[in-house]
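Sanity check

After download, print the first record. It should look like this:
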Amino acid sequence: MSRWLAPLAGVVGLLTLVVGIAWAEFDVTSMAGLDLVGFGVLALLLAAAVAGAHEGAALLARRRRAVAGHPRRR
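Expected structure tokens:
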């Protein structure tokens, strides 16, 4: 599940960040675009956390297989 969740969250975060920045630039009278920028940054951080957790779990699984003497997966 996390194989597609991290890239999807990253894409949503980047798009939200870009839309928020554009909105903040074009609508100078309000601060509504800054909420979108903050949400985009949070989505990018979430994507990085999910990707890091997935890679960490994969690394631990590889170490456990190596310690147990199982052959490597291809």
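If your output differs, re-run the checksum step. Summary of this record's structure: The chain has a mean pLDDT of 79.
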